[in-house]
Amino acid sequence: MSLPPILTDTEQVAALAERLQAQTVIAVDLEADSMHNYQEKVCLLQFSIPSETVLVDPLAGAELDPLKRVLADPAVRKIFHAADYDIRCLARDFDIEINGLFDTMISSQFLGEEKFGLADVLRKYFDVELDKQYQRADWSKRPLSEGMIRYAAEDTCHLHQLVEILEQKLFEKGRHAWVLEEFRLLEKVRFAVHEGPLFLRFKGAGTLDPRQLAALENLLQWRDDEARRRDCPLYKVLGNKSLLHLAKLKPTSMKKLQEVDGLSPRLIDRYGGKLLLQISNALDLPESELPNYPRKERRIKDPQADKRLQRLKDWRKKVAAELELDPGVLINNALLEELARKQPRSEQDFGNIAGLKTWQKAELGEGILRTLSD
After folding, report:
1. What is the sign of the dihedral through the CA atoms of 210, 192, 355 and 202?
2. 6 membership: H or E segment, kind and range
3. In this structure, are residues 160 and 79 in contact, taking their beta carbons and an 8 Å threshold?
4. Which of 13, 3, 85, 91 is nearest to 56 (CA)?
5. Which residue of 204, 354, 359, 367 has the fewest CB atoms within a 10 Å radius of its CB?
6. Helix axes 333-342, 303-323, angle to 10 degrees
7. How far is CA 169 from its chain centroid?
8. What are the DSSP calls for 111-124, one per residue?
């Protein structure tokens, strides 16, 4: 296969947008640099129509505004595999909206595929082997190697054929409407905008007392500044496990730092003084200035609701086995808990269950009501 062209200026992108607008279906993917830089960004986009594959390089100065209209046009189907991250990135980086989505990963999940990663699906249906060495490549580096360019093209060039196979299977199983609803919901996902202390987004922070929490917040702020300065991901400065252990132990000397999980002599030599400074500042805070972790109001334990939840899980397991689906794809635990707690007694009551989808009400509603009434 010859190498696809890489578009590097806005005029070329505008011409591509015109060609794409004339299509009924286009395949789309992107590559980002989340493993390599402080602020991840879209580094490359791939577009395939039946006759060609084209790459677009936004890092070379190509403006993507000409693509907004076609990507937002629901009359042009956009095929992605695992679109969630891509949709969020395109909206954040370029204010690009995706409508007319068809996601081949979601389709594979709703067909009961045990392995639904792109490499697994392409191997199964087309005997194509993707070179996994490029999955964690630094896509912000230029020039792109020939291997990276070929890998990027492989991500989209088979998707048209794949859709034909998967869509036929979905129709045969009566699940086509199910995935269409999933796609419409997925089109609306966006990255959350976080405000407030960093510890609110840190797993394990809720286990800390106020003084430890102050130490953790100082350490998180320091790590964020250091990662920004070095232009690298947070984990390449210091891992979460080490930060949590530091906050719990609150070491006050270089010797004590040696007791922290994952803190190597090299890291202590490089960052020891700065880490101790952050902890010392937290230890000096007056009690009145210490942070508290916000606690949700504890839900009153309801033994009857627990019994209903278990019945729902048993019912879900049986139905999922009959449909050859993963139980979590059929209906997730959070929805089962809500159903068990609110105990709807009629289809009209399903309106009180946030997140229950139309296809779930139609396909599972009768079984849910029957199980809850037992």
Report:
1. negative
2. strand 6-7
3. yes
4. 13
5. 354
6. 130
7. 26
8. TT-S--SHHHHHHH
Q: Are strands 42-49 and 101-103 parallel, antiparallel or unpaired?
A: unpaired
Q: Supply the pLDDT for residue 295.
A: 84
Distances from the Cα of 33 to the Cαs of 86, 105, 347, in angstroms? 12, 22, 46
Helix, coil or strand: residue 164: helix
**Residue 8 DSSP code:** -
Neighbours of 79 (CB within 10 A): 23
Give the up-direction half-sphere exposure of residue 363: CA atoms within 13 A in the CB hemisphere: 17
CA angle 31, 32, 35 (to 5 degrees): 130
Query: What is the identity of the amino acid at 205?
Result: A
pLDDT at 265 over 90: yes
Half-sphere exposure of 134 (CA within 13 A, CB side): 21
Three-class DSSP category at 145 = coil
pLDDT in tens, 104-150: 999 999 999 999 999 999 999 999 998 888 988 999 999 999 999 99
Give the pTM: 0.91
- Distance, CA of 337 to CA of 55 (rounded, Å): 45
DSSP string, 259-307: TSTT--HHHHHHHHHHHHHHHHHHHHS-GGG------PPPPPP-HHHHH
Amino acid (one-letter) located at 203: K
E-assigned strand segments in 18-74: 25-32, 42-49, 52-56
Average pLDDT over residues 44-50: 97
Say if residues 6 and 144 touch (Cβ distance below 8 Å): yes
Strand segments (E) across 93-210: 101-103
Separation of alpha carbons 149 and 234, rounded Å: 28
